[in-house]
Design goal:
Distance between the termini: 45 Å
Structural class: alpha+beta
Number of domains: 2
CATH architecture of the largest domain: 2-Layer Sandwich
Strand order of the largest sheet: 7-11-12-19-18-17-14-13
Helix content: 25-40%
Number of helices: 13
CATH superfamily of the largest domain: Bira Bifunctional Protein, Domain 2
CATH class of the largest domain: Alpha Beta
Bound molecules: 4-amino-1,4-dioxobutan-2-aminium adenosine-5'-monophosphate, magnesium ion
Largest sheet: 8 strands, mixed
Shape: elongated
Length: 441
């Protein structure tokens, strides 16, 4: 009979029948006259055993790491006391080479070495991606994106796709990437928020998963020049509603990610101490955070005690989150350090209805706020920030034609992934990370 063509993931259900699998040689080992080949096909790893004539004919010239092969054989359960991925292995009876990778000096194992200079590893990103840690991270990433969408679907929030090429800023002029758009000045979007706001009267609550771009000048563990931004905008809600939506969104997303056994296994391996977040998150105002920082002797950027109006920079923020070691909803930031569109608190006009979600090890993973929905108030916001309101005529119209209280947030996919998979830097969490000085491959 013609052998059944399968993917490795289906191996468990196709034991004891002859199958054919195509993939890449992930590992290769010769032992006691047998060749142990771990095959990788993207869906998983399978140990394949070559014996007898197949093993005798084996040489490093005919089979090398990362060669592409078609393998025929039967998958058996493992005998007691042996271990291999999936608890089974394939007895190979025939194989063909589809693409032979070089051996010797040019072998992939000589090019990609974990000890290599990080910039060499970024040059070789296309090869590094094949490693087990990287493939694990990108499977978790896919599960995260799937789960975000599942939660939004359940909440009846509609997905839209706003443009990346824009002529307005959202989060300050200093991090804009500019380019010529048919002779006109344009930017790569920093956030799709303003576009989402205009969708509310048309479609109700909306979300998007879109690349955002920031010309960040500094090298940090958590800043990319391009990142995948998950943003939502919700109409007719209070600041308190927004906070509870955000904490629910995060806990449910993580719950769905971990429902998948394979994904839960990867997270367990990468981050053995991971504790799924529990409701409700700790709430802390900006001012009480300053008090906490001052009490714990953590200084501001100038090396002094924090005072109202200071930015809580990355280092201080992380010291606090690592110490408290739980998700935090940090609220009510001063008007001066936040964007032009943020609504002021009714009980204290010095501060805004704004929130950052902070996670241990990473710090800020979400930024959100209630929006100014009164046109005059918004005009004052532009003025304070020195922004010309003219290009924002479409955004202002939202305040003229049927305004409503609304708010939303943006979540950095690479940041939540770095938290979930315990990565030192968000660069591990982007397929081909873009940061200062790096735009290849
Ligand atoms: O706090 P940010 O700048 O907020 C906004 O852009 C709002 N307009 C979003 C909204 O309300 N719709 O960015 C939101 C999140 C941050 O919390 C962070 O997780 C991520 O985007 N982020 C970055 N991630 C990687 N690299 C960067 N350079 C990032 N800048 C922001
Ligand atoms: Mg922010």
């Amino acid at each position: 009979p013609v052998p059944k063509r399968i993917k490795i993931r289906a191996g468990t259900t196709t034991r004891e029948t002859r199958v054919v699998i195509q993939g890449w040689v992930h590992r290769l080992r010769l032992q006691k006259g047998l060749v142990f080949l771990v095959l990788r096909d993207g869906t998983g790893f399978l140990q394949c055993v070559l014996s007898g004539d197949l093993a005798n004919a084996y040489s490093t010239v005919t089979l090398t790491l990362e060669s592409t092969v078609t393998i025929y054989g039967v998958i058996h359960s493992l005998p007691e006391g042996k271990s291999a991925p999936g608890n089974h292995e394939m007895a190979v009876d025939y194989y063909e080479i589809v693409g032979l990778a070089p051996g010797g000096d040019d072998a992939i194992s000589n090019k990609v070495q974990e000890s290599a200079d990080p910039s060499i590893l970024f040059d070789l990103r296309h090869l590094v991606l094949r490693g087990e840690t990287m493939t694990g991270i990108f499977k978790v990433r896919a599960a995260l994106l799937r789960s975000f969408r599942r939660v939004y679907e359940e909440l009846g929030i509609l997905e839209v796709t706003p443009p990346c090429m824009v002529q307005t800023q959202v989060e300050g002029g200093s991090t804009l990437f500019t380019f010529k758009y048919y002779g006109e000045d344009a930017y790569l979007t920093q956030s799709s928020q303003l576009y989402l706001e205009t969708c509310l009267p048309a479609l109700g609550d909306v979300f998007c998963v879109q690349e955002s771009f920031r010309a960040e000048r500094s090298h940090t563990r958590r800043h990319l020049s391009e990142y995948t931004h998950v943003e939502a905008e919700l109409a007719f809600l209070t600041f308190e509603d927004l906070l509870s939506h955000i904490e629910n969104f995060i806990t449910r997303t993580i719950q769905y990610v971990l429902e998948d056994e394979e994904i839960a296994g990867i997270v367990e391996k990468l981050n053995p101490n991971f504790v799924p977040p529990k409701l409700p998150f700790r709430r802390m105002t900006y001012e009480s955070a300053l008090e906490w920082l001052n009490e714990h002797g953590i200084p501001n950027e100038e090396g002094e005690k924090f005072k109202f109006g200071d930015d809580i920079a990355e280092a201080a923020e992380r010291k606090m989150t690592d110490e408290l070691n739980e998700p935090i909803l940090l609220t009510r930031f001063p008007v001066e350090i936040k964007s032009f569109y943020m609504k002021k608190c009714a009980d204290d006009p010095r501060v805004t209805e704004s929130v950052d979600v902070l996670m241990p090890n990473v710090g800020e993973i979400v930024g959100g706020s209630m929006r100014i929905y009164d046109l005059e108030e918004l005009m004052k916001g532009y003025k304070r920030e020195g922004i010309d309101p003219e290009p924002y005529y479409w955004f202002n119209d939202q305040r003229i034609y049927g305004t409503c209280p609304h708010g939303g947030y943006g979540l950095g996919t690479e940041r939540i992934l770095a938290w979930l998979c315990d990565r030192f830097t968000v660069r591990d969490c982007s397929l081909y990370p873009r940061f200062t000085g790096r735009c290849k491959p």
